[in-house]
Design brief:
The chain has 114 residues and is mainly α. Helix content is 61%, strand content 0%. The radius of gyration is 17 Å and the shape is globular.
């Protein structure tokens, strides 16, 4: 079993970079939501989901829906945001497999990410 370590940092509103950090969080959220929308639509249409590498390539193409938010963020933050989304999709697929093996362990069929 893997243990995840989390560090929570509370930033006071009087901190000089508070508004900038809040802006970066908003852009990261927007990137995640845009990538999720693209993945959902592609999965619904074709039954195939775009993995991290596909989304990363798409985000680097000028004119793509992900391009603007991807390039506003520092590269590592943008890439990590897309990696988190990829991890969440893989978790969804694993839960579907587990549900098919033993549905009695679940209260209902796992739902697609929203």
């Amino acid at each position: 079993m893997q243990v995840q370590r989390v560090q929570k940092i509370n930033i006071d509103k009087s901190y000089e970079y508070y508004s900038y950090l809040k802006y970066l969080c908003k852009v990261s959220k927007n990137l995640y939501n845009q990538a999720l929308f693209i993945q959902r639509q592609h999965f619904i249409d074709s039954g195939y989901y775009e993995n991290y590498n596909d989304l990363d390539k798409l985000a680097k193409i000028d004119g793509s829906p992900l391009y603007k938010n991807y390039h506003i963020l520092p590269v590592q933050v943008a890439q990590q945001t897309l990696r988190v989304l990829d991890k969440n999709w893989k978790s969804f697929f694993e839960s579907i497999k587990a549900y098919k093996k033993s549905p009695n362990k679940f209260t209902g069929r796992p739902k697609m990410l929203k």
